[in-house]
Amino acid sequence: MKEIFIFFIINLCLVTLNSCDNNSIEKPAYLAIQELYMTPNQNSSFGNSSSKISSVWIHINNYNLGAFELPAQIPVLIDTNGSYDLKLEPGIDINGVSSFRGIYPFYNPIEMSVDLKKGETIDFPSGSNKIVSYDFNAPQGELKIKNLETFESGLRTMTTTNQSDTNWILTSNSNIKFPPPQGEENLYSGMAILDTGICKFEVSSNEDFILPKGGENVYVEFDYHITNPLTIGVIASNPGQIIQMPTATFLPNSKWNHGYVNLITEVSGSPQASTFKIFIGSAKLNNGRLDTVLIDNVRLLYHE
Question: Are residues 75 and 96 in the same domain?
Fold first, then answer.
C-alpha cells in the first residue's frame, strides 16, 4: 500500500509539471558590464589616475542585486519593460586579495536611468558612463589625497629607513616604467634592486600624518610590478615609543598592477598615536636571482 501511495504522488507531480506553461516563465533582462575605470586627467592634483575596479555592487530601483566580478552579465527580473534607476558602486580587491572585495569608499557611485527589456541584453556602461571619480564631498568629510611619491621630480618624498641597504633609483625605460592611462604621461617610475648582499629595501614617508581613527577608512593606493614580495604598513608615533605595523603583503606579479591597502586596523588600533608614517618594504627571498621592485603613483587617502 505504501508503494502505491508513493507511485501516486510521483505521477501527480509529473502531471502537474507537464501542465505548466513554459511560456509563462518570465525572461530576465540582462545588464552587461565590461569595465569601470578612473577619469584620465593630465593635470590632476592627485597625480596619475590609475585604478583597478575589479567588481561592482548593483542596485535597481534601490533594490540591491549584490556584488559581481567584472566583466559581468547580470540577469535582472523586471515587471515590465521600461526605464529603471541604476546605481553602480565600484569595488576593489582590498589589500591585494581577490577574495577580500569591498566597495571603495572614496569613489562616487554611478547613478542614472537605464532602459531594460525582458530577454534583451544592454551593454552598460558605455562611453563616459564607464568612468568613475573620487568623491571629494562625502558625508564623512572632505576627501584628502596626499601624493606620497610620483617620481616626477628630483625630490624624494619617501626615503630609505635605517633598515634598508639599498635605495630608490629612477627609471625612464619605457619597457619597464609604469604605462600611464591613455591621455596621461609618466616620465619616471621608482625601482629598487635586490641581489646578493643587497637584501632589504625599505622607505617611509618624510611627512608625519595625523590620520582619522574610530573605524574610519584610511587607504594607500599604488602601482607596482615586483618579482619579490612587497609589504606596506604604518609607523605609529606613540608616547615614548615608535611602533611599526605591517598591513598587507603583495606577491610577485607578471605585469603592472594597481593595489589598494586599507590601514583602518592599524590606525584605529593605535588610539594613543599622535602621527603616522607610511612605509613600503621588501626583504629578499633566498632564490638565488636578482629581484626588482618597481613602484609608482603612491597616494594616501582619508576623510577629514
Answer: yes
Asked whether the beta carbons of 79 and 40 are under 8 A apart, the reply is no
- Under DSSP, the state recorded for 209 is B
Spatial distance between the Cα atoms of 35 and 114, rounded to a whole number of angstroms: 17
- Supply angle C-alpha 79, 83, 89, rounded to 5: 100
208 in any annotated domain: yes
Q: With 0-12 CB in 10 A as exposed, 13-18 as middle and 19+ as buried, what is 283?
A: middle
Q: Rounded to whole angstroms, how far apart are CA atoms 221 and 4?
A: 68
Distance set, CA 101 to CA 96, 230, 259, 267, 295 (Å): 9, 20, 12, 20, 23
Domain final position from 109, 135, 161: 135
Residue 95 and residue 165 in one domain: no
Would you call 107 exposed, middle or buried from its count of C-beta atoms within 10 A (0-12, 13-18, 19+)?
A: buried
Per-residue pLDDT at 292 exceeds 70: yes
Domain assignment present for 80: yes
Q: Which of 135, 158, 182 is the last residue of a domain?
A: 135
Task: Note the Cα 21 to chain centre separation in Å.
Answer: 46
- In this predicted structure, the answer to whether residue 125 has a pLDDT above a threshold of 80 is no
Judging by beta carbons within 10 Å of its beta carbon (0-12, 13-18, 19+), is residue 175 exposed, middle or buried?
exposed
User: What total of structural domains would you count in the chain?
Assistant: 2
Beta bridge partners of 245: 234
Distance from C-alpha of 218 to C-alpha of 215, rounded to nearest angstrom? 9
What is d(CA 153, CA 150) in angstroms, rounded to the nearest whole number?
8
Distance from CA of residue 133 to its chain's centroid?
13
d(CA 166, CA 203): 10
Both 159 and 294 in a single domain?
A: yes
What are the tens digits of pLDDT across the range 15-70? 444 444 444 467 999 999 999 988 776 667 777 889 999 999 999 999 999 999 99
- State the residue range of the domain holding 39: 22-135
